[in-house]
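Batch job 17 of 40 flagged for manual review because the log was empty.
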Amino acid sequence: MVGKTISHYKILEKLGGGGMGVVYKAQDLKLDRFVALKFLPHHLSADEEEKKRFIHEAKAASALDHPNICTIHEIDETKDGQIFICMAYYEGETLKKKIERSPSPIDQTLDLAIQIAQGLAKAHEHGITHRDIKPANVMITQDGVVKIVDFGLAKLAGQPRLTKAGMTLGTAAYMSPEQARGEEVDHRADIWSLGVVVYEMLTGKLPFWSEYEQAVIYSILHEEPKPMTTLRPGVPPELERIVSKAIAKRADERYQRMDEMLVDLKSIARELEFGTSSYRPSKPQRTAKTS
């Protein structure tokens, strides 16, 4: 593909790829700007269900207008029937690459988490659940602005499921328990995934991990993660509580809205910045047992 001109886009280099698409940097010859083109892989182009999923991604993401969500310019098809999405191109790196270098400072972690939460809150307002929040799907521009990418697994509220029978969506280590069980999920699955991402940003480790996917899923369903303070002394107890609430195994015990988690993240960020004691953690929503 590199060197070819598709429509009015000249493809310059390959940026990456996954199961749902391959992404290239390209030059928009009409507007003289760089863009990112995401193509449905050739071997999936003949699969009508995969085409529907890919088009659904473009529609879901293009309906969102927010600074922390990747901008979608258009969707088109090549002469030989290969569908592609034209997206904004950002200079920067993925959160995955950033984490691989070293755990983030606490204030930087909060800043990035707040930006991710803001983008997801906007998506949730429009009835869209991302369902695949992970560091590889979070771009950080050179100016430090978060851009959430790849709504390929998003489910627009009210739309039919576009999943194959028996297919589990998402990446195992970031899946909520209900997602790992293959159940229908809502926006609280994104809250869980963001909690996992914050845990990883702070400690450099995943809360639920094994070399084997089934062992990861077992851990998500049945085990509790190590406290972050045991892996990184100095993590504020309030931040530990926010993450613990986000990754509560029962969806009704988590934050019920991304806005609620966002309020707590902003509160502790202000406390750390100004040395105030304005932060008040949300009370756990567990039902008290009676004897």
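Reviewer: the log was empty due to a logging misconfiguration, but the result itself is present. The longest strand covers residues 9-18. Unflagging and moving on to job 18.
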